[in-house]
């Protein structure tokens, strides 16, 4: 999902200055993968990434927040932080990476000195509240670590994290009282009434716990926490500032019994004082989806107070995860690839306590048995490339965890369907399709162990046959979604058809012929919304007529298409591109149509009202997912050289080593997964096919360290800016005529070599035998 801000067509992504990777404070070898990551890429513009500390797929994302707290401005601060800002509100423990929707920002802490101010104040008015100015020159960050100097408070802040615990280290000026604000009102999606309820309780001189329930993007979300300080609190104040009324809780040492050291309400804020006796204060914050006691138990994940050791553990965890790919490339490209890999490992996030407890889609507590429950599934985005990438570079246990998390979510769902867009275990109903289905099917087709295939298929079919969802009852009856009965009907029809095909693929492999036949038939439903007269996908009414008038550039939320127009959506039948070629009238017709997509002269005003249609090259919108496979379609029409040509333009204009270096929301890693695959030289156009479509590499060499212990090397001979095209390809020393490579070939290990040249090779990959899989046989026209 990408929501709510428009980049003008032709925007130079490097408008903000390039930023250097911060070096570690101790001597570290430069060849560590984490040293190549630039966590600030995507923190400006529309990328919506955050620079803070987390572990790979960690439950805690401890990061600075700079948002203004005004509802109408919440979208730009979807990740809490924007590189363009110059004040920090505080440091909270949960963040989305790259989404187009704002939420989270739980348990915000802010160190300070001097007068206690319980309101954050305004960024344009210094000293109006507890927020502080900062400078990028004092920021240091790498995977698992973030540091900054707060200018107004003269406090140094350092952050690191384990999976469930965030660790802060504050250094205060000598002789001044060390103080900390805790604000439970603050959130990244901050509007009146978000907090349904919250509580704070002091449990001793250095420990406190609390919770809050919110009604943001996921209604009824509950989060519990435990905060432990490295020094005793000398003073503490608990406040409820609801409706402008002060309900003061507990203040000062020994001023009341322990059971009175608590406060409840919708607008809680607390202040803690530690005196001037030591400049350094450390704070641990553990979170839990289940209870305060579980949050306390999660603190045991991080014993002791050795900040440097915990920072090094976090970095080592990232080096282990990132070392799945060894990249040789020029420095900026290498930095971009490793940063993209980093972004692909920020979600789905772990969402269970150390004892396996988690909160499911029924908002009840469950316990994971033999797997680790994950949430934050941005499925409309990530089924395309992120999850297929994980099947190559991550252990099968992790991929099985994702699948099992999806399947148990279906079993615990009040509606009995798989997640659509889930976080904190809860459904948001954001976006369209039932795209947990291709994630599961792709993993099964690739032989990922640890999947209960029967339970998974049952969940997939239940989701595809749940009539009340998204016009499915009409789709099952008519063979398309009718626009007079359901919005975004054209998009829903083709996305359902692809999902249906993945069900059929999995059912066929399982020997469930009746299910396979039923869903292979449904997979052809995209034809029912394709108008051969105009050559575009169009919305039809329940009487069978296409809606009139028709404008292929028309795009509005809730109209015929989802976050796009006919120019973006008419080529979305990735399982049957030969069928698309036939509908258009042959290979040249598809080539010409995709040429028109890229080469069109499009006025910025055409899509200016659509916040998600960003990163424009003609009508191609790389900042949003429906366009992501389009450049690779030339391979299906016998013109792979055109794919190679288009990829060069996309890579040059849609990504840059700068804060505004992503042309659209990273969408929990999908934009970055596209970049990673394309840099390697191939891309999964149709997850579930077990094929990756060849493009051209953008790195000199990449070694994939496969989870089965083998390695697969991609190498580019004569890689140079002038050598845009692929002259030939060899797999394990033998010429490769196919314009795709299979998952099985990758997992067997070996070497894929591209020989690059300046002129296009228009003979390679032309024949039907060289082309990738499609459901319909190629028609030699």
What would you note in describing this structure?
The chain has 781 residues and is of the alpha+beta class. It folds into two domains: 287 residues, Beta-galactosidase, Chain A, domain 5 (Distorted Sandwich); 447 residues, GH92 mannosidase fold (2-Layer Sandwich), CATH 3.30.2080. The chain is 23% helix and 21% strand. The chain contains 17 helices and 38 strands. Helix 3 crosses helix 16 and helix 6 packs across helix 7. The protein starts with 52 loop residues before the first strand and ends in a 24-residue tail after the last strand.
The CATH topology assignment of the largest domain is GH92 mannosidase fold
The averaged pLDDT comes out at 92
Distance between the termini: 37 Å
Shape: globular
**What structural class should be given to the helix and strand makeup?**
alpha+beta
CATH class group of the largest domain: Alpha Beta
Can you lay out the helices and strands and say which pair or pack?
Blueprint: E1 53-54, E2 61-65, E3 87-88, E4 90-92, E5 108-112, E6 132-133, E7 140-142, E8 145-150, E9 155-161, E10 165-171, E11 179-183, E12 195-202, E13 207-214, E14 221-229, E15 235-240, E16 247-251, E17 262-265, E18 268-273, E19 280-288, H1 292-298, H2 307-322, E20 325-328, H3 331-344, E21 349-350, E22 357-359, E23 365-367, E24 374-375, H4 379-382, H5 386-393, H6 396-412, E25 422-423, E26 426-427, H7 436-445, H8 453-464, H9 472-478, H10 489-510, H11 513-522, E27 530-531, E28 536-537, H12 566-569, H13 577-584, H14 587-599, E29 616-617, E30 620-621, H15 640-654, H16 670-680, E31 682-683, E32 691-694, E33 701-705, E34 711-717, E35 725-731, E36 734-735, E37 740-742, H17 743-747, E38 750-757
Parallel strand pairs: 34-38
Antiparallel strand pairs: 1-2, 2-4, 3-6, 5-11, 7-8, 8-9, 9-10, 10-19, 11-18, 12-13, 12-17, 13-14, 14-19, 15-16, 15-18, 20-33, 21-24, 22-23, 25-26, 27-28, 29-30, 31-32, 32-37, 33-34, 35-36, 35-38
Helix pairs in contact: 3-16, 6-7, 6-8, 7-8, 7-10, 8-10, 10-11
């Amino acid at each position: 999902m990408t929501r709510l801000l428009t980049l003008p067509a032709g925007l130079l992504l490097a408008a903000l200055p390039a930023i250097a990777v911060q070096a570690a404070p101790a001597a570290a070898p430069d060849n560590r993968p984490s040293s190549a990551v630039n966590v600030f890429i995507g923190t400006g513009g529309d990328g919506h990434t955050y620079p803070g500390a987390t572990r790979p797929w960690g439950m805690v994302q401890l990061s600075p927040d700079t948002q203004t707290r005004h509802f109408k401005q919440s979208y730009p601060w979807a990740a809490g932080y924007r590189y363009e800002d110059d004040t920090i509100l505080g440091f909270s423990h949960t963040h989305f990476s790259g989404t187009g929707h704002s939420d989270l920002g739980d348990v915000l802490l802010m160190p300070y000195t001097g007068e206690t101010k319980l309101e954050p104040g305004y960024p344009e008015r210094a000293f109006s509240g507890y927020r502080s100015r900062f400078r990028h020159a004092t920021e240091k960050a790498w995977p698992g670590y973030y540091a900054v100097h707060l200018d107004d408070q003269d406090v140094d802040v350092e952050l690191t994290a384990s999976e469930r615990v965030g660790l802060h280290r504050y250094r205060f000026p000598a002789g001044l009282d060390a103080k900390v604000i805790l604000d439970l009102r603050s959130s990244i999606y901050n509007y009146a009434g978000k907090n349904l309820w919250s509580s704070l309780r002091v449990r001793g001189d250095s420990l406190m716990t609390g919770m809050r329930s919110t009604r943001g993007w996921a209604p009824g979300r509950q989060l519990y926490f435990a905060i432990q300080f490295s020094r005793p609190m000398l003073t503490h104040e608990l406040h409820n500032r609801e409706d402008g009324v002060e309900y003061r809780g507990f203040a000062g040492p020994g001023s009341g019994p322990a059971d009175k050291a608590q406060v409840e309400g919708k607008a809680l804020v607390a202040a803690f004082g530690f005196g001037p006796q030591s400049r350094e204060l450390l704070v641990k914050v553990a979170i839990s989806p289940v209870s305060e006691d579980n949050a306390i138990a999660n603190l045991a994940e991080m014993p002791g107070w050795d900040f440097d050791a915990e920072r090094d553990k976090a970095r080592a965890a990232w080096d282990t995860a990132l070392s799945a790919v060894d990249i040789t490339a020029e420095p900026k490209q290498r930095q971009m690839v490793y940063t993209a890999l980093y972004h692909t490992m920020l979600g789905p996030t772990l969402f269970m306590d150390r004892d396996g407890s988690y909160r499911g889609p029924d908002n009840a507590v469950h316990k994971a048995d033999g797997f680790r429950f994950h949430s934050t599934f941005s499925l409309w985005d990530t089924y395309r490339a992120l999850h297929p990438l994980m099947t190559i570079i991550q252990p099968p246990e992790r991929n099985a965890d994702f699948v099992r998390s999806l399947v148990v979510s279906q079993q615990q769902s009040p509606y009995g369907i798989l997640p659509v867009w889930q976080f904190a275990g809860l459904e948001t109903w954001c976006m369209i399709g039932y795209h947990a289905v291709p994630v599961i099917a792709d993993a099964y087709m690739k032989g990922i162990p640890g999947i209960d295939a029967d339970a998974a298929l049952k969940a997939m079919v239940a989701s595809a046959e749940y009539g009340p969802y998204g016009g499915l009852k009409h789709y099952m009856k008519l063979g398309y979604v009718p626009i007079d009965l359901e919005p975004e009907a054209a998009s829903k029809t083709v996305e359902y058809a692809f999902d249906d095909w993945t069900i059929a693929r999995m059912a066929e492999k399982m020997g469930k012929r009746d299910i396979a036949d039923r869903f292979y038939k449904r997979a052809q439903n995209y034809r029912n919304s394709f108008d051969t007269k105009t050559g575009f996908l169009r919305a039809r009414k329940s009487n069978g007529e296409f809606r009139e008038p028709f404008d292929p550039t028309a795009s509005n939320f809730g109209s015929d298409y989802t976050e796009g127009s006919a120019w973006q959506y008419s080529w979305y039948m990735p399982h049957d591109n030969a069928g698309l070629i036939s509908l258009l009238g042959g290979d040249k017709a598809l080539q010409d149509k995709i040429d028109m997509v890229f080469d069109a002269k499009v006025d910025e005003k055409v899509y200016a009202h659509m916040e998600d249609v960003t990163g424009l090259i003609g009508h191609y919108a790389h900042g949003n997912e429906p366009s992501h496979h389009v450049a690779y379609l030339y391979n299906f029409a016998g013109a792979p050289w055109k794919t190679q040509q288009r990829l060069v333009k996309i890579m040059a204009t849609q990504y840059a080593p700068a804060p505004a270096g992503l042309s659209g929301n990273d969408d929990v890693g999908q934009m970055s997964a596209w970049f990673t695959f394309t840099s390697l030289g191939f891309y999964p156009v149709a997850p579930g096919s077990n094929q990756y479509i060849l493009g051209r590499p953008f790195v000199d060499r990449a070694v994939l360290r496969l989870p089965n212990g083998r390695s697969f090397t991609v190498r580019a001979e004569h890689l140079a800016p002038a050598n845009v095209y692929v002259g030939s390809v060899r797999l394990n020393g033998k010429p490769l005529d196919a314009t795709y490579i299979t998952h099985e070939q990758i997992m067997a290990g070996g070497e894929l070599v591209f020989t690059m040249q300046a002129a296009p090779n228009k003979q390679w990959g032309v024949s039907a035998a060289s082309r990738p899989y499609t459901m319909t046989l190629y028609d030699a026209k």
